[in-house]
Amino acid sequence: MSLFIEKETDTDFSFDEEALAKEVTDYAIEHEGFPFEAEINLTLTDNDGIHAINKEYRDIDAPTDVLSFPMLSYESAGDFSKLEDDYDDNFNPDTGEIMLGDIIISVDKVKEQAKSYGHSEKREYAFLILHSMLHLFGYDHMTPEEAAIMEGKQTEILNEMNILR
Length: 165
What we know:
Blueprint: E1 2-7, H1 17-32, E2 38-45, H2 47-58, E3 66-70, E4 98-106, H3 107-117, H4 121-136, H5 144-160
Helix pairs in contact: 1-4, 3-4, 4-5
Binding site for Zn(2+): 131, 135, 141
EC number: 3.1.-.-
Function: Single strand-specific metallo-endoribonuclease involved in late-stage 70S ribosome quality control and in maturation of the 3' terminus of the 16S rRNA.
């Protein structure tokens, strides 16, 4: 799996954000049984940067914590059985990896929310990456049923990884 990280802002975390991002993305891929080698882009930005992207792509004039831009379409969340049909349209010809999608995180929000929720920045950062990975696998939280499934997976995976509140 290839994880490309672009830093648009200083991170000054007390942990290795690149290693943790790789650990969480790898674990999510393994946990969900994603059957292909994947390519993921992660951008670390500030509130101003994510605000501009949120406004442009979602018409929401405010910063947010994380944005996910999946490159793949699923018949149902976490069902990878039909991806091979569209594999040629979704892979990087240079690497042969399927382009899973883009994750954009506001470092400012990681810090704000960790403090607000009373847990570590490491836990908040890992949570946002995992949350976004589940979106890249087709999961969502628009209905109570979808939210329950996605939240259950988030809790299960973070517990398995021993990344606790």
